[in-house]
Amino acid sequence: KETFEGHQVLRIVAKDEVQLSLIKDLEDMIEFEVDFWRGVTDVASPVDVRVPFHSLQSVKIYLETQDVEYSIMIEDLQVMLDEEQEAMESATRVAE
Amino acid sequence: PRNTDSFDYSNYHTINEIYSFQDMLVAENPNLVSKIVIGQSYEGRPLNVLKFSTGGTNRPAIWIDTGIHSREWVTQASGTWFAKKIVLDYGHDPTLTAILDKMDIFLQIVTNPDGFYYTHNSNRMWRKTRKPNPGSSCMGVDPNRNWDAGFGGSGASGNPCSETYRGPRANSESEVKSIVDFVNSHRNLKAFLSIHSYSQMLLYPYGYTTTPAKDQAELHSLAKKAITDLASLYGTSYRYGSIINTIYQASGSTVDWTYNQGIKYSYTFELRDTGRYGFILPANQIIPTAKETWLALMAIMDHTFKNPY
What we know:
The complex is a heterodimer. Chain A is an alpha+beta fold. Chain A has three helices and four strands, in the order βαββαβα. The longest helix of chain A is centred in the last third of the chain and has 19 residues, at 77-95. Chain A starts with 7 loop residues before the first strand and ends with a helix. Chain B is of the alpha/beta class. Chain B is built from nine helices and eight strands. In chain B, strand 1 and strand 2 (46-52) form a beta hairpin. Chain B starts with 14 loop residues before the first helix and ends with a helix. At the A-B interface, strand 2 and helix 3 of A face loops of B.
């Protein structure tokens, strides 16, 4: 089973079209293995990207050096997945 | 659960639980609900479609599908709730009763069963189908880029490792080809509503070209009505418009193909996350999401019913 300890989801907000294309370039940086949850659309809409633990620092440096604003939408994805799994299991126990 | 009244709609369920829910709903409502298997997934799972019909033969019909991207769990969960809602409201809600007295509704809840099973057992983040790609170690095709509408254009990837990999050719995925065959054999679908999450958007064709759809004005005003009804419940705000103008270029997408088949009322929904959960939307938001979405679905179904073509 694939787990996601330390993966974070970053909510990135582009200031302009230039920054939007910088964010889109992340998709082509295969080594970062980022997963776009919410794709690049327009400047008004945030972009949500899941970043594996191993490339977190590189991605954040890439964004910060380009002065691209981001916030951490999900601190540790695995924690949320464990909560979701626990909710399902307890619902099943209640049903039984 | 022994019946669909005691089924827990406010939690996420496995594929087996959803499939047995479908069989229970059919068994409880033999005069309204039947199950059609339109094909098999790559790994051999049945592609179940619930048919809601009060009679007639090959009546004009409305298609709703959820879960084509497997990790978008709130959509399969909402689809389960929609199925029960149709049964509960027929004979009680005058608008739905009028629709079902003259039209059929087809509802495919688990449109990508292999991917959905995989999200429960191996990788919660899985989006695509699970067919191997010859010559690559990466699996799966994006089933929302595999349709024969602008297939091969930009707005999808040719890399099997990409989340938006279009596949080796249009309809290469049995999960897609089975729906294509169903649409081509039924030939009387009047609306096609494909439900994704997340980001609160209601989208209509086209995604592969900037050329406006010939019914753009009507599709746009109907979308506005639908999202206004949706927002009336909890204030969830949606954006709406054509795929290419509202989000990005997307080639080979479902509703572009269905629209090109003449199914005028072709829409893609992107349900909530209204907060910061993304695909991991807490289960306590399933029913509110389903209820608000139902208002938009009813707006589109009612318009389809009242504007025959």
